[in-house]
Amino acid sequence: MIANALGPVFLLIVVGAILRRVDIPGEQYWPGIERLTYFVAFPALLIHRLALADFSDARIEWYLPVILLSLLAVSTLMWLLRNRISDGHADFTSIFQGGIRFNTYIGLAIASALFGESGLVIAAIALAIMIPLVNLLSVLCFTLGDPEQSLNPRQVLYNVFRNPLIVACIIGVLLNLSRIGLPGWSAELLAQIGAAALPLGLLAVGASLQLGSAGQEWRSILYASMFKFLILPTTILSLSVLAGLGQEETAILLLIACLPTASSAFILARQLGGNAPMMANIISAQSLFAFAIIPAWLWLAPAIAG
Fold it and tell me: pTM of this prediction?
């Protein structure tokens, strides 16, 4: 079942990589496809799912402490080890992002394929919590470790909440809690726009892969992947079991924890003075590692969660 669900997801990534190599639809079009997905299709998907979701059976009150404690624990560990795992602040910011950021496109596609509508809703709720936290921690990492940058809380919050996925999550939850929902034709409109988000997002992931110089950054890739694929998933799985979450909830939180780093990490590295080439190599290498690691964790989770 896991292989059948994950196969089409990863094949779409491969198709995206092939299309980029054969120059279809053309080098100049991929940035526009990414922007359309990031600013329009994906927010539409999140608003639609969250506004209409039934939260009654989900143990949402436990999602926040499990996610918050896991991210803080792993972030603190990386920070304490920063002088051992990196050769400077710019390099560390790339390793840090590689250890905690995740590719939302892949996560929602797999959650939908494996668990259907209920899994997609749980994943959307978890993402509504994780996206702001991960962005906040990433911005703080850049700011706190750079002596030339002063901590500006207003600027930090601005960088976090201008993220269209965060805005979409907030809108969707507010529409749900207010019982306004999606009146008129808005539900069908958002459903049709959002339907394009996952295939376009996965194609864009494949098109963004750059493996030419990944071998030169093997040490940084190894450290980032150790936190991303081993320490963070282990922490979230352990806390989910302690919190008594169900198998499906535990599996989805675990899935999000072991997703490869998103391409948005490269953009942040370039904007805030990180090591952008290293970040690109970590993203590409982790996207390939995920082919084997995600199925392994999802196969293991039910045995641990009971």
Answer: 0.83
